[in-house]
Design goal:
By secondary structure, the protein is of the alpha/beta class. The chain folds into three domains: 154 residues, 3-Layer(bba) Sandwich (FAD/NAD(P)-binding domain); 126 residues, FAD/NAD(P)-binding domain (3-Layer(bba) Sandwich); 120 residues, FAD/NAD-linked reductase, C-terminal dimerisation domain (Enolase-like, domain 1), CATH 3.30.390. It is built from twelve helices and 28 strands. A six-stranded antiparallel beta sheet has the order 21-22-26-25-23-28, with helices on both faces. Strands 3-2-1-7-18 form a five-stranded parallel beta sheet, with helices on one face. Strands 9-16-10-11-12 form a five-stranded parallel beta sheet, with helices on one face. Helix 1 runs parallel beside helix 7 and helix 2 packs parallel to helix 3.
Length: 447
């Protein structure tokens, strides 16, 4: 009897976890991973650190490859999938370097095609010094081009954009962040966004919000950017790091159904509308824990979970993907920023009314509170249940994240969260609940 053939398109975290999970289920299947990039798999969240280091080096903490051979998986680098024929169950591809045509028959297929930069400026890509920021090669190119004393413009103020800006600052460049809306929109409330903007500007990075880039000026290389308010900013380097859009070209060719977000629609088994074609990672949409609505959240942590389910089921299992609760914790400009669950803005888009409350954080040793100033917001729905939380702190934000995530998962009311809060952790909340709920001056109500 012929072994089961599993083809995985995409060498990112979703593709690799799919391969690992498939191998756990089926020890004898033939597993092939097609990766368009020439590099071994890497963690995309670690790319900004490459700008500072400037080289891969012999020992790279974010290149994980030691276990790939142990899985008995064929990882083909520099191979681009061009087409999927779901009737014949064949993937057509090519070797990018040699242009050799390749064909891969499959019994089960996993699309882990990821995403691509969401924003580009027409024509500017031909100028030297203008980059997108999505791949390892992007990070290396930015690092090679960055010069101390130069001026850099980073487009986008999400986590990746802020980390790119910080890395360029460490390369001793004058850095300006350009953002149409505000810092970490969709991740933190406006008050925390303004607070973080101030912290960033204290480090010498200019943050311009409410504007867009209308033109990237210069002849052969970038010399300036023109903003929507007619300002011109000198720039020797421009990096677009403003979000991700799902890469669904192959899905369309395979006649796979797309969802309302524009990403691939999957069921709870990570199977698409086409039998034996599964999908995972930044190319798919998933169900929101709070509302059950479809949402698009391109995060590495979700990609890993989705890949594990998709790979297992491609090998014959029946595992299910749970509805998601977004959890992001990053260190930005020496501050830990945690964003868990819904913000008032994302909840409103799903038709959920919210209350936003800032909770006073009391440290047992008050000197530490002055050393590590912190802000904590909790978002509740109309019934008082915790549906989100955000924190900015020099320390401890990651320590608190587990308690906040657990409260959302258990659908606890704010009062229940405060009752269960552990006083054993270094940072703890110590205030009278009745007084806070009745007289909290910073309470914001969003409907």
């Amino acid at each position: 009897m012929r072994n089961r053939r599993i083809v995985i398109i995409g060498g990112g975290i979703a593709g690799l976890t799919a391969a690992a999970s498939a191998r756990q289920v089926d020890k004898n299947s033939e597993i092939v991973v097609l990766s368009k990039e020439p590099y071994l798999p890497y963690r995309r969240s670690s790319l900004p650190s490459l700008i500072v280091r400037g080289t891969l080096g012999a020992e790279n903490p974010f290149i994980f490859h030691s276990w790939i051979n142990e899985l008995n998986v064929r990882l083909l680098l520099g191979v681009e999938a061009l087409d999927v024929n779901p009737d014949e169950r064949v993937v057509r591809a090519k070797n990018i370097k040699t242009q050799e045509s390749l064909s891969f028959p499959y019994d089960a297929l996993v699309l882990a095609t990821g995403g691509f930069p969401a924003i580009k400026v027409e024509g500017c890509a031909r100028k030297r010094g203008v980059f997108s920021f999505r791949t390892l090669e992007d990070a290396l190119e930015v690092s090679r081009y960055a010069q101390a004393g130069g001026s850099a413009v980073v487009v986008g103020a999400g986590f990746i954009g802020l980390k790119v800006a910080e890395a360029l600052m460490k390369r001793k460049m004058k850095v300006t962040i350009v953002e149409l809306y505000r810092v970490l929109r969709g991740l933190v409330e406006p008050s925390l966004s303004s607070y973080l903007k101030g912290l960033i500007e204290q480090r010498g990075v200019e943050v311009l919000t409410g504007v867009t880039i209308e033109e990237v000026g210069g002849r052969e290389k970038v010399e300036y950017v023109k903003l929507s308010d007619d300002r011109k900013i000198p720039a020797s380097l421009v990096v677009f790091a403003a979000g991700v859009a799902p890469n669904v070209d192959l899905a369309r060719k395979a006649r796979v159904e797309l969802g309302t977000t524009g990403a691939i629609r999957v069921n709870r088994y990570m199977c698409t509308s086409v039998p034996e074609i599964y999908a995972a990672g930044d190319c798919v949409e998933t169900r929101d824990f709070l509302t059950g609505n479809w949402t698009y959240v391109p995060l590495g942590s979700f990609a890993a979970k989705e890949g594990a389910v998709a790979g297992a089921n491609a090998a014959g299992a029946q595992e299910e993907m749970k509805e998601i609760i977004r959890t992001q914790i990053e260190t930005i400009f020496a501050n830990e920023v945690a964003s868990i669950g819904h913000t008032s803005e994302t909840a409103k888009r799903m038709g959920v009314s919210t209350n936003v409350m800032e909770l006073p954080i009391i440290e047992r040793r008050s000197t530490l509170l002055r050393t590590y100033p912190s802000k904590l917001l909790v978002i509740t729905d109309a019934r008082g249940r915790v549906i989100g939380a955000q924190m900015i702190s020099r320390r401890f934000a990651s320590m608190l994240a587990f308690h906040l995530l657990s409260a959302i998962e258990k659908r606890l009311a704010l009062e229940e969260l405060l009752e269960k809060w552990s006083p054993s952790i270094p940072l703890y909340i110590d205030f009278l609940l009745e007084k806070t709920l009745s007289s909290q001056p910073s309470l914001e109500v969003h409907t």
